[in-house]
Design goal:
alpha+beta, 2 helices, single chain, four-stranded antiparallel sheet
Length: about 80
Amino acid sequence: MQKKRPDLKKKLRLRIKALETSETLASLPQDDPGGRWHALHGERAETWAAELSGNWRLIIEPKPNQPHAHEITVIDITDYH
């Protein structure tokens, strides 16, 4: 990302830090309100997104897909709008 979108570097670090420090998936919106964490729907069901800037989002997949999930896989960083 540093080569492709260096402007996202700071916010990406903040989102990753939130993932590392949050106890559960459900606590992400409170622990990192600037990320605007939210569950996705439709073809992206069972994934969550966090805002990086404008249309750019960090996409994660929790395991299990429950509010108490402790394991997260980063799926993508994308402009999905």
